[in-house]
Amino acid sequence: WVGSDLVNSVRGMLVLEYDEIIRLLSGITESWFENNGPIRLKNWPTHFGAIDLVVEYKDDRMNMDWGGTVNPPEGYKVFWPNRRAPASVKIDGEPWEDFNEQTCRVPAGTRTLVAEW
């Protein structure tokens, strides 16, 4: 059971279903990216379908790419790895305003997010 607790803890840091929303990266900090490169999830199961996700964070820029069958009813809540409000956010190439110093609300169906600090 200790092994499954570890897996569930790491999973919750990356992808966590909470009511009708998926929280992404809630336990991830900048240090995850310093020596390891991007985070890649392929066909990751959730209550709302499988998610494919690639997250790159480098030089005060975060790129996220979504795929898969995932469709959470209330979308996503993305947590910033540096816990600072970005200067700008784009969702699928369009400027986005629904963010603060900790998180960004992202609608279901989103395919890309770019944040710059």
Explain what the structure shows.
The chain has 117 residues and is mainly beta. The protein is 15% helix and 42% strand. It contains 2 helices and 10 strands, in the order αββαββββββββ. It has a 6-stranded antiparallel beta sheet with strand order 3-4-5-10-7-8, with no helix packed on it. The protein has a 4-stranded mixed beta sheet with strand order 1-2-6-9. β7 and β8 form a beta hairpin. It is globular.
- The structure class reads mainly beta
Instruction: Strand order, main sheet: write it out.
Output: 3-4-5-10-7-8
- Indicate the low-confidence ranges by residue numbers: none
Average residue-wise pLDDT: 92
Number of strands: 10
- Strand coverage percent: 35-45%
How are the elements arranged and paired?
Blueprint: H1 2-14, E1 15-18, E2 21-24, H2 31-34, E3 39-44, E4 51-58, E5 61-68, E6 76-79, E7 88-91, E8 94-95, E9 103-106, E10 112-116
Parallel strand pairs: 2-6
Antiparallel strand pairs: 1-2, 3-4, 4-5, 5-10, 6-9, 7-8, 7-10
